């Protein structure tokens, strides 16, 4: 095709435009890649016959340059970027789950920009342990004897099973063989760890005698898995952690371990929100070990926290996996600052995840009306009652009453409007439903609100 010869070269496009990273300091290598992508897209359009009639070299050059400029405006130098979460899903896994508190952000910045005593004892002037940085905080807040932090809760489960039950049997109820996001299954991780799964009971009903009858000389652990991402209702029966502990009277060598999944240090039931068990209640009951996530209901960074009896935690600390799965100073800084907030209930409400979950309907309604008023000049907007979700595979049966702004535009479909909002310098993520873009203010703070309005009003 003759027109293909008129396509500009990458070098020609770069020469004609003085980009050199522009204001956003984008590497030249990235700009070259974008130029090539735009030329390839134009070539494909010509081959498919979908390109219009204006087929001149200058026109092709202008199209490629405009495409690259648009990518520069949208993307900037970084792939990981801030977005506004206007979906109302508080722990949105795709959007990074929990936002850190201002105290946690400040502590991370301090640790990131300085040398720290990560593995240095200021008291002794000798090498220390990074485990000591966070252990006392976890012990104070949960009441446990000892604790260890790894890089996520899946890693925590794997480490407990591999270090304490390899080539031994672990008894789990069939109703608790859960799968969480990314096809992570308890049964699969157990197989990888070298522990031997022994299922008891049925999907909907498991009794204490099922566990008791399954114990033999090869049994190392009784494992309970909190079904944090689903609920089974109807003709059901489960065995509580407290009941499992009664079996230790006859089998004192058994480890009773509960994977709490999202975990919680905040009394959500006191606010009429769900029935999520508090971690400290499991520790006080006498469980040998519990594990839970740091970036879900705790509201901190991605981490897996293992807490419990010092006998077992000390064994885990000496295991080779402790080094493989350890976290860095930034995670420890964020987690330490987050946990400090839990010493007072009111301070815990300053953690964004907690704050957004317990926000009142009235507060959200006032914010919805304010946003609605500012968008009404260019959009058709309606405020309706709705519900938000906690998200992150947490509290699946909990709906949080909210107010939603339905937004439509005369020139754009809802999907087109949603796409254009995602292309902004600070992308805005909305929900598309019933041919409308839905804004749920629950997850939109003051700074986000300004970015959201700017995105909508600059289309």
UniProtKB/TrEMBL annotation:
Single biological process term from Gene Ontology: conversion of seryl-tRNAsec to selenocys-tRNAsec
Q: Which UniProt keywords apply?
A: Cytoplasm, Protein biosynthesis, Pyridoxal phosphate, Selenium, Transferase
InterPro entries per the record?
A: PyrdxlP-dep_Trfase, PyrdxlP-dep_Trfase_major, SelA-like, SelA_trans
Gene Ontology MF terms: L-seryl-tRNA(Sec) selenium transferase activity
SUPFAM superfamilies from the xrefs?
A: PLP-dependent transferases
> Gene3D superfamilies given for it?
3.90.1150.180, Type I PLP-dependent aspartate aminotransferase-like (Major domain)
| Main location, first listed in the record | cytoplasm
Q: What's any one GO cellular component for it?
A: cytoplasm
* UniProt-listed Enzyme Commission number(s): 2.9.1.1
| One Pfam family this sequence matches | SelA
The subcellular location is:
Cytoplasm
Give the UniProt family note.
Belongs to the SelA family.
Q: What function does the entry list?
A: Converts seryl-tRNA(Sec) to selenocysteinyl-tRNA(Sec) required for selenoprotein biosynthesis.
Q: State what protein this is by name.
A: L-seryl-tRNA(Sec) selenium transferase
Q: Which organism is it from?
A: Fictibacillus solisalsi
């Amino acid at each position: 095709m003759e027109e293909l010869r008129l396509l500009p070269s990458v070098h020609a496009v770069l020469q004609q435009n003085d980009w050199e990273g522009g204001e956003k300091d984008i590497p030249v290598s990235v700009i070259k890649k974008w130029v090539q992508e735009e030329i390839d897209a134009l070539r494909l359009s010509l081959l498919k016959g979908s390109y219009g009639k204006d087929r001149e070299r200058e026109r092709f050059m202008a199209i490629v340059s405009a495409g690259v400029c648009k990518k520069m405006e949208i993307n900037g130098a970084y792939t990981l970027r801030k977005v506004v979460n206007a979906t109302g899903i508080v722990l949105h896994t795709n959007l990074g789950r929990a936002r850190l508190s201002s105290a946690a952000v400040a502590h991370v910045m301090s640790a990131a920009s300085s040398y720290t005593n990560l593995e240095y004892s200021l008291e002794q002037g000798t090498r220390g342990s990074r485990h000591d940085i966070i252990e006392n905080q976890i012990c104070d807040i949960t009441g446990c004897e000892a604790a260890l932090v790894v890089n996520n809760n899946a890693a925590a489960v794997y480490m407990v099973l591999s270090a304490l039950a390899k080539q031994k049997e672990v008894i789990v109820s069939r109703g608790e063989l859960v799968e969480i996001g990314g096809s992570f299954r308890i049964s699969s991780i157990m197989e990888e760890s070298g522990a031997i799964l022994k299922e008891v009971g049925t999907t909907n009903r498991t009794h204490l005698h099922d566990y008791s009858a399954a114990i033999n000389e090869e049994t190392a652990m009784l494992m309970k898995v909190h079904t944090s991402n689903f609920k089974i209702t109807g003709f059901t029966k489960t065995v509580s952690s407290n009941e499992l502990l009664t079996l230790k009277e006859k089998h004192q060598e058994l480890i009773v371990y509960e994977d709490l999944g999202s975990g919680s240090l905040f009394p959500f039931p006191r606010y009429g929100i769900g029935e999520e068990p508090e971690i400290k209640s499991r520790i006080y009951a006498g469980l040998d070990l519990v594990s839970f996530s740091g970036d879900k209901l705790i509201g901190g960074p991605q981490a897996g926290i293992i807490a419990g009896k010092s006998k077992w935690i000390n064994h885990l600390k000496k295991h080779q996996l402790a080094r493989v799965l350890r976290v860095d100073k930034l995670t420890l800084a964020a987690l330490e600052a987050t946990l400090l907030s839990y010493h007072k209930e009111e301070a815990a409400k300053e953690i964004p995840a907690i704050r957004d979950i317990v926000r009142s309907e009235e507060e959200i309604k006032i914010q919805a009306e304010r946003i609605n008023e500012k968008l009404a000049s260019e959009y058709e907007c309606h405020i309706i009652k709705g519900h938000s979700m906690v998200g992150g595979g947490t509290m699946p049966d909990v709906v949080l009453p909210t107010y939603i702004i339905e937004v439509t535009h005369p020139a754009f479909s809802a999907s087109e409007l949603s796409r254009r909002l995602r292309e902004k310098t600070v992308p805005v993520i909305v929900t598309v439903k019933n041919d409308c873009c839905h804004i749920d203010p629950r997850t939109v703070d003051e700074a986000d609100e300004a970015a959201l309005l700017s995105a909508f009003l600059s289309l």
